[in-house]
Specification:
Strand 1 and strand 2 form a beta hairpin. Strands 1-2 form a two-stranded antiparallel ribbon. Strands 3-4 form a two-stranded antiparallel ribbon. Helix 2 packs antiparallel against helix 3. It has four helices and four strands; from the N terminus they run H-H-H-H-E-E-E-E. The chain is of the alpha+beta class and 134 residues long.
């Protein structure tokens, strides 16, 4: 058992290994293969196998810089989507007390209290002043 572990360690030396993007591809492969079992459509099988092979290719690749850059791009995209979702959730929770406007100069989101009538809003980022009804 110990020699198998050593052989596997030697094999993986200099290879990229598993990361978040590889895990995503392997998860998508599993989902498509399960869909194939349920629907018996060949397209799901082909998509599942493609994701499986590409996920394995990424894990065993020796081009560490390229795979790391792809993973970083994926993590940045995922972080941006998480922040957008979090902000939308906050806006939804505060919709009764506040109104949200975009600054016409820089597109910065500005939060103002509801029920104040027409007010002059000054953007905190670019100091553009605009009038809106709260």
């Amino acid at each position: 058992m110990n020699s198998l572990r050593e052989r596997m360690t030697r094999f993986m030396y200099g290879r990229y290994g598993s990361d978040q993007l590889s895990k995503l591809y392997l998860g998508l492969a599993m989902a498509f293969l399960i869909l194939n079992l349920l629907t018996r459509l060949g397209i799901f099988y082909l998509a599942g196998m493609a994701f499986l092979f590409y996920g394995m290719y990424r894990s065993f690749s020796k081009n560490i810089a390229k795979m790391s850059a792809q993973n970083q791009k994926y993590l940045t995209w995922r972080y941006q989507k998480t922040v957008k979702y979090s902000n939308a959730k906050k806006h939804w929770a505060q919709r009764r007390e506040y109104r949200f406007f975009s600054c016409p100069g820089c597109r910065q989101k500005v939060r103002v209290p509801r029920g104040r009538g027409k007010i002059a809003i000054t953007c905190p980022k670019c100091h553009t002043e605009f009038i809106k009804k709260s």
